[in-house]
């Protein structure tokens, strides 16, 4: 396939989108990126600091606004890569409306615009959560054939978005590909998410809240390994296919909290078990054999190397953390966990 040189990235001011933009600029030396992001509470222009303005243009806009999307895509693109989403399960439990609007309606607006502007490929960044929860047995894994069984409003909205991609391909012949990844960790992740929540609280000697019995299992991957997988799928994935992305790195939540505390030299007594999240999925575990076999993708970070790099970034960027933990985040935190 001809190299993808003009990219239209949505949600590129968020955690994974900003890592993808950095990686694409590095890996595809002559690519040009339009980064289209509404800058919700999770979007942060600090995440784009230092990018080459001749090759990366930021446009503030909402993916549900078809006129704004068509205008920003006026010159077409080789690929649309859709990261824009409401992404936090806990928030979807309090209120699902924004999730349906952005993740479902917004994806359809982008699919229509991609067709109208004759974009070569549409990449939908999805999640393992669309496949529901696995039993605790260690021989059960998600594959691309696992049925859709989304259990939260967040995962249901992401599943709906995948269906819309499938329909755009089947009905209109749009070239769509889907990636489904597990829990990401790395620099610039908004502190409401599990790992940066542990890190940022522990760094301030505040208790680190862990849901329920702490034995829920997640499959962790460093954000740059996820982004390398998305690049591989964008460039070489087969049209219409879904690719699971995982680093074969299952961890119980309480083990993750212990690793973080240990790495920071903080006592395990900071762990505070709190009331479980309603409908909390027990276990996610991804079989990534298809992307490994077809595209030769492999994660480059181990859990140890990735965690060490991540912790170093949070220590060196205390101001970023302090700004992210201000204002609206404080209100959200008090509602979710009380004022510990
Ligand atoms: N974080 C994970 O572990 C994980 C795992 C698998 C898949 N994903 C998926 O990857 C994508 C990115 O996740 P993330 O963790 O970086 O999320 P994030 O919440 O950090 O970033 C989302 C970005 O989308 C933007 N956005 C939200 N609504 C928008 C709208 N209506 N129009 C334009 N921009 C909008 C936000 O401003 C923000 O910059 C999401 O689609 C998510 O479902 C995330």
Describe the structure.
This protein is of the alpha/beta class. The chain has a domain at 6-184 and 220-245: NAD(P)-binding Rossmann-like Domain (Rossmann fold, 3-Layer(aba) Sandwich). It is 41% helix and 17% strand. It is built from twelve helices and twelve strands. It has helices spanning 15-27, 66-72, 89-94, 97-116, 153-172, 194-203, 223-236, 253-264, 289-295, 303-316, 318-324, 328-337; strands at 6-10, 32-37, 56-60, 79-82, 121-127, 176-181, 183-185, 208-211, 217-222, 242-245, 250-252, 271-274. Strands 3-2-1-4-5-6-10 form a seven-stranded parallel sheet, with helices on both faces. It has a three-stranded mixed sheet with strand order 7-9-11. Strands 8-12 form a two-stranded parallel sheet. The structure holds nicotinamide-adenine-dinucleotide. Nicotinamide-adenine-dinucleotide binds at residues 10-11, 13-17, 37-40, 42-43, 62-64, 83-87, 102, 106, 125, 127, 158, 181, 183-184, 190.
